[in-house]
Design a protein that fits this description.
Elements (H helix, E strand, L loop, with lengths): L1 H16 L18 E8 L4 E9 L5 E9 L4 E8 L4 E5 L16 E9 L12 E9 L6 E5 L1 E3 L14 E4 L12 E5 L6 E8 L1 E3 L8 E8 L4 E8 L1 E5 L7 E7 L2 H6 L12 E9 L2 E5 L2 E3 L5 E4 L13
């Protein structure tokens, strides 16, 4: 009995020693519903098109605002209304679908969508949203593949504003959105003939007068215990060498090398959370592979304009 009492006291000591809010921390994932959806890869270059599906999994309707950012740092935005228990879809190339996306872009990029109040001026909690991106080659190859969005829940009752309007804090703290993962863990079949990785920085400024965000992806491959790096300016796409296919981890780190590459002041390239998706090829088959997010990073954020003026759509 004495041993049991000692063990209980130790457990209580550990509980009390933890910082306040430790048990409130949660992390975004492709495997949960959320109030914020992030699609790392949108491809409407050449003959490519990306169809976005967003599901509202509750008996009430909701407004969802979306922001697209291209690799050239052009932006466009729109707001849609999802009916109760509706899955709405639209083409990123034409804006047409079961609901109108109202957007036309001409290259690769990323898309972020989150629940807002009826005026569109405040982000709100609505942890019933799920997303899926279907990328299709409309040319002779005709290949199609897809992936699930990264989803971030909000720690507020349904319909309640989350944080300061225009600032989405991805901290995992009480009253805010889920945190970003500290790093990503991928597992790729060694039979793949090609693996294309898309990464985005988890700190994003989507305002009309915006800043770019920089980080450096550090890769640690299990095969041969090798490593690699890739500088990132908001968004990057790279291939995984076949020689290191298998499991690997990637994390966003600071780098003076990337500062020099981008001709930026020292300290511009920062430690940052990153999100990603793999476009996996095996001969003529192609499919998406999502990573597992490991750990917590509380520094992620999204800044957006809340005055009702969204960025103009890019002409095709």
């Amino acid at each position: 009995m004495k041993k049991v009492w000692i063990a209980l006291c130790l457990a209580l000591f550990v509980f009390w020693a933890l910082p306040a809010g430790s048990f409130a921390l949660s992390v975004g994932s492709p495997y949960k519903s959320g109030s914020l959806l992030i699609f790392p890869l949108i491809d409407v270059s050449g003959d490519m098109d990306t169809v976005i599906e967003i599901t509202n999994g509750i008996y009430l309707g909701v407004n969802v605002t979306c922001r697209y950012r291209s690799v050239s740092d052009d932006t466009a935005g729109f707001t849609i209304f999802l009916e109760p228990n509706e899955t709405g879809w639209f083409s990123m190339k034409t804006g047409e679908g079961s609901i109108s996306g109202g957007i036309a872009v001409g290259e690769k990029g990323e898309l972020k969508c989150w629940a807002v109040d009826p005026s569109g001026s405040e982000q709100i909690s609505w942890n019933y949203l799920d997303g899926f991106a279907e990328i299709t080659d409309l040319g002779p190859d005709g290949l199609t593949w897809g992936y699930s969005s990264w989803n971030f829940a909000a720690d507020q009752p349904r319909g309640v504003s989350v944080g300061v309007p225009g600032t989405i804090e991805l901290s995992g703290k009480p009253g805010e959105y889920d945190a970003m993962p500290k790093y990503l863990s991928f597992s790729l079949p060694k039979t793949l003939t090609q693996a294309n990785l898309t990464l985005i920085v988890g700190k994003q400024d989507l305002r009309q007068d915006r800043d770019n965000n920089y980080s450096k992806a550090k890769f640690n491959y299990s095969k041969g215990n090798t490593s690699g790096t890739q500088c990132i300016e908001n968004w990057v796409q790279t291939s995984i060498p076949r020689a290191v296919l298998g499991s690997f981890k990637v994390q966003g780190i600071a780098s003076t090398v990337c500062d020099k590459l981008y001709k930026k002041p020292s300290g511009t390239t920062q430690n940052a959370p990153i999100l990603g998706v793999i476009e996996a090829h095996r001969n003529k088959a192609v499919y998406g592979i999502m990573p597992i997010g490991i750990g917590f990073d509380q520094t992620g954020y999204i800044l957006w304009d809340t005055d009702g003026a969204v960025p103009e759509a890019i002409s095709r």
